[in-house]
Specification:
Oligomer: single chain
Number of domains: 1
Family: Belongs to the DTD family.
Subcellular location: Cytoplasm
CATH topology: D-tyrosyl-trna(Tyr) Deacylase, Chain: A
Protein name: D-aminoacyl-tRNA deacylase
CATH architecture: 3-Layer(bba) Sandwich
Keywords: Cytoplasm, Hydrolase, RNA-binding, tRNA-binding
GO cellular component, one term: cytoplasm
Largest sheet: 6 strands, mixed
Distance between the termini: 5 Å
CATH class: Alpha Beta
Strand content: 35-45%
Structural class: alpha/beta
CATH superfamily: D-tyrosyl-tRNA(Tyr) deacylase
Length: about 140
């Protein structure tokens, strides 16, 4: 499982020009989490990802999402598993198929909510437009 976590002051995701998820957090900051589920991920990788999103100290002042009750915008991003070493067209064979990935993304969202974190989401499998105001910029790649 891979994720790109970006510290933001606001972020939104739209499908067909309709906003389906948004966070606005100029005081605490928040996290835009682009998460890709891999075909070879362990059954409990989602739990590690929940912990990383909630506890990594990547907000202002070395605070975590849990420390300051910051919101998360969670967007499924299978393209994080694209292989680009050969040729000009990425291979997506390392990404989990949709029927495997979608429930994992839902487990991550639920796991964050169970920690009391506000979670907004994109729409799985849809063509989405993601907008963000990055802070820093501060972006990290998480693999688990």
């Amino acid at each position: 499982m891979k994720a790109v976590l970006t510290r933001v002051s606001s972020a939104s995701v739209s499908v067909d020009d309709e906003i389906v998820g948004a966070i606005d957090c100029p005081d605490t900051g928040g996290i835009l989490a682009l998460v890709g589920v891999g075909a070879a991920d362990s059954d409990d990788a989602w739990e590690t990802m929940v912990r990383k999103i909630a506890e990594l100290r990547i907000l202002d002042g070395e605070q975590s999402v849990s420390d300051v009750n910051a919101p998360v915008l969670l967007v499924s991003q299978f393209t994080l598993h694209g292989r680009t070493a050969k040729g000009r067209r990425p291979s997506w064979s390392d990404a989990a198929p949709g029927e495997v990935a979608e429930p994992v993304i839902e487990k991550i969202a639920q796991g964050l909510r169970e920690r009391g974190i506000t979670v907004e989401q994109g729409r799985f499998g849809a063509m989405m437009k993601v907008t963000s105001v990055n802070e820093g910029p501060f972006t990290v790649l998480v693999e688990c």
